[in-house]
Sequence to fold (119 residues):
Amino acid sequence: MKVSVVISVFNGAKYLSETLDSILNQTINNWECWIVNDGSKDDTQSIIDFYCRKDSRFLSEYTSGGEGPYAAANIAFPRCKGEYIARIDADDICLPQRFEKQIKILDSKKNINVCGSFS
Fold:
């Protein structure tokens, strides 16, 4: 596994499908995506369930909520199997080459520990 994607979400039904589609559209396929539902009251969980059924690389956890996005994301980190972790908010869109470009940088420059992008 090259990349573990971590998304925490609270009441994110409005944008979550677009975010998950942008992960599906990455130019690399060697990823897993952990989605942590932080106690959403909208249709977030049904969207998560749909994507988990659609593609086994999507994995999910649920919390009762109230701890915030960083605490929710921390639930997924120990479960990640990827060499790298990509943190994404539930309303972010990743351009198709985001992971590919970041992996290329991180693989070629071992002195770099963190890599961000606008793509």
